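Minutes, project check-in
Item: structure for the 536-residue chain
Input as provided by the requester:
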Amino acid sequence: MLTLKDVTKSFNARILFQGANLTINYGERVALVGPNGAGKSTLFSLILKTDEPDSGEVLRDEWTTIGYLPQMSAPIGNETVMQIATGRAHVLPELEKTLRQHEAAGTVDEPAYFEAQAKFDALNDPKVEARAKKILRGLGYKEGEFDRPAREFSGGWVMRAHLTRLLVMEPDLLLLDEPTNHLDLLSLIWFREYLKGFSGALLMISHDRDFMDSLIETVYEIHDTRLIQYKGNYSDHLRQREENHERAMTAWRNQQKEIEQMQAFIDRFRSVASKASQAQSRERQLEKMDKLERPKPLRKVFRFQFPQPQRAGQRVMALEDVEQAYGDKVIYTGLDLEVQRGDRTVLVGPNGAGKSTLIKILAGEIPIRSGTRRLGTNVRIGYFSQHRTDTVNPELSVLEEIRRCAPEFREDDARSVLGSFLFKKEDVHKKCKVLSGGEISRLNLVKFLMDPPNLLLMDEPTTHLDIWSIEGLIGALKNFEGTLVFISHDVHFIRSLATQVLHINAGQVTRFAGDYDYYLEKTGTEENARAAVIAD
């Protein structure tokens, strides 16, 4: 259905990949991985024909329909959620316009016409609205929200409506660029189960390791300008790349040893008459040898030691009979909760259930309407939110900001930690005032790790991180001796850290005194999601 043949592409005089080959067959599930900036999104643009390769070919079956979910959605106007989900707002009119243009030009035998016609027919199906409603419900929308203007929702919710439209169309090939970024844990589980039954092919870019392990059967990695294929899921790919690298290193070492031995023979017997011809023969052999390059090191998870916080009392935090509301909307009433020293608690539940509100109450970021919030002995709170920008000095550089909060760290150590969280080379000299929201988020993470509090409250800490940075963060938090309460939709992150789960729904907080798998077993969450997909 899709073939990349000997494709080379450069950007700003930098080669992203050269001689790249890729094949996707009907129904195949493929992940594209590689470090940030390696060219993953550029490869998507080549497949979508919005960019052209410097050399090579991108070949698509002329009958193939492609659906594409970018990381960011287009600006919205007055259209409703349902109009986006069914394509009525913009997509259907554009498809109809494309069809009429081809018909007027007499080019109805071109692949672009076939694809437009297939998508137009899918969105004109009488059952399209019923299918859209089922998918919207699975992705977390409530029945009464379908006809509300999309502009009333956050960008993440609008992305769910666009994703619904793609699933309704059922393209032959679905391109997904970080599809889990905007999903809460429950909608992510539903989406994963839905994709297991999706009949088309998948090509995805994702930083969610568990999501890829559940779905993917082939991995292509962009590494050192090459596109390398691995059979299996993401974890299989990690094992194979280590094995391949070790084999390549062994071959290189063996060849180096052979070269050294040949060169030693040449140097020793070049001037010895009885051995001169043999020395000359080996010299020619050495010149003709196809010499292997030393394999470049594979990127490893960065591990570092950071200071441990002061020990707090046994009871770190207590909420007693707390009520919290936004205007007339009551979020919690009669809430009692204790946080004990050493707890590693994940908050789960649907979007809008009150997870972030609870984190903010614990952090003291918002006043409670009534009740009591008691802080334990020697407790020092650190609150990590994706959306806070007032935690950095805008006039300092990234490196200066780190040295300010952790002056005992040497500059080389600070640079190493920053590098593991995607601040490369000259990035450390950027002023904080010019950083993007994602960069500020990562900088705040580094600050927490280098000067950790003993109660760490984190809201979606893995957003804006790549897989290797997430693994580094997991390693740091595993060694953290304080107390951790966090929200995350990254299942691998949750499984690696959480020792108990608080499920939040409609103002009710239910504690599960076990890890994430214990919570799944007790609640039947995955089985319920699977049943909901089947029922659809």
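Outcome recorded: The CA atoms of residues 46 and 52 lie 6 Å apart.
No further action items on this chain.
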